[in-house]
Amino acid sequence: MLSEIEKGLEGLRVKLDSIDEQLLDTLKARLECCIRIGLYKREYNIPMMQPHRINFVQERAARYADENGLSKEFLRNLYELIISETCRVEDIVIDNSENRRQEISSSLVDQKRKREELFNGGRDTNTSN
User: Fold this and answer.
1) TM segments (predicted)?
2) What is the Cα–Cα distance from 52 to 59, expressed in whole angstroms?
3) Which of 37, 64, 87, 109 is deepest in the core (most CB within 10 A)?
């Protein structure tokens, strides 16, 4: 039997899990968009690396941190990871390797499946008294 305090904490954790799932879905959507950008760059022979775009994204994150009371360092580190993965994915797409594109697609599907297992299978949903 869960106490009122434990029930309150569990409710907050359920909310956090939902937010995490949205965050992961958003990251997946971002990577899917980057794949489309990579295809566009490949079609029009545009270099993968676009330093001005990276600067724009990082500056936007810094402004967001300022406006919302978040740590600039945290968002800078987060975006370094996101941009690094984006560059890796775009590089594979621009490389025009069918096997590599399938690898990315399979990886995204596997990540979604693992995330769903983690979110759905890792939590005790039995709250009966």
Assistant:
1) none
2) 10
3) 37
Decide: helix, strand or coil at residue 41. Answer: helix
Q: Where are the domains of the chain?
A: 4-121
Mean pLDDT of the chain: 85
User: Where is 38: in which H helix or E strand?
Assistant: helix 4-43
Q: pTM for this structure?
A: 0.70
**Which sign does the torsion angle of CA 70, 76, 79, 85 carry?**
negative
Cα–Cα distance, 15 to 99 (Å, whole number): 38
Rounded distance between C-alpha atoms, residue 124 and residue 93, angstroms: 40
